[in-house]
Amino acid sequence: MDAAASSSSSSSAVMDYGDEPHVLAVDDNLIDRKLVEKLLKNFSCRVTTAENGLRALEYLGLGDDQQTSHKPSVSKVNLIITDYCMPGMTGYELLKKVKQSSILKEVPVVIMSSENIPTRINKCLEEGAQMFILKPLKQSDVKKLRSYLKHRN
């Protein structure tokens, strides 16, 4: 059993998902969610969307009802991109939950916001966000994300 595990561990985690990086896009605004999805798909990303932080946690296997179960049912994503300001759970709170998870803490999280508030940006970056992007998301922003995904081991 150890021999099989060691042979598969030599490949990078990104390769396990095929050639297309899998991105979880979280935004309560349908139009913004569709824009993010379209731009990411233009850059050959597989996209799963969630309309709020709680749905994102459920998808990732971190929902409250899933924490009681001992078997990890974590969905494999290469990147999480989330709006900051959402009802129920902010993007910052989602970021903190992801970074607290032993399984997901290495997954890069990118925060988006239509508000350019330096203290908010710094708070997110200090908590472990890879990037903070001002809305609306642009193709140049997605290029930065793609180059980051390509260099990730």
Give your account of this protein's structure.
The longest helix has 13 residues, at 30-42. The protein is an alpha/beta fold and 153 residues long. The protein has six helices and five strands; from the N terminus they run H-E-H-E-H-E-H-E-H-E-H. Helix 3 (53-60) packs parallel to helix 4. It starts with a helix and ends with a helix. Strand 4, helix 5 and strand 5 (131-134) form a beta-alpha-beta unit.
Biggest sheet, in brief? 5 strands, parallel
> Care to count the β-strands?
5
Name the quaternary structure.
single chain
End-to-end distance: 24 Å
Per DSSP, the total helix count is 6
Strand order of the largest sheet: 2-1-3-4-5
Mean pLDDT: 83
Q: What proportion of the residues form beta strands (DSSP E)?
A: 15-25%
| Radius of gyration (Å) | 16 Å
Q: What is the H/E string?
A: HEHEHEHEHEH
Structural class assignment: alpha/beta
- As residue ranges, the low-confidence spans are 1-17, 67-71
Helix content: 25-40%
User: What shape does the CA trace take?
Assistant: globular
What structural keywords apply?
153 residues; alpha/beta; five-stranded parallel β-sheet; 6 helices; 5 strands; disordered N terminus
In short:
The protein is α/β, with parallel strands linked by helices. The chain contains six helices and five strands. Residues 1-17 and 67-71 have low confidence and may be disordered.
What order do the helices and strands come in, and which of them pair?
Layout: H1 2-9, E1 22-26, H2 30-42, E2 46-50, H3 53-60, E3 79-83, H4 91-100, E4 109-113, H5 118-127, E5 131-134, H6 139-150
Parallel strand pairs: 1-2, 1-3, 3-4, 4-5
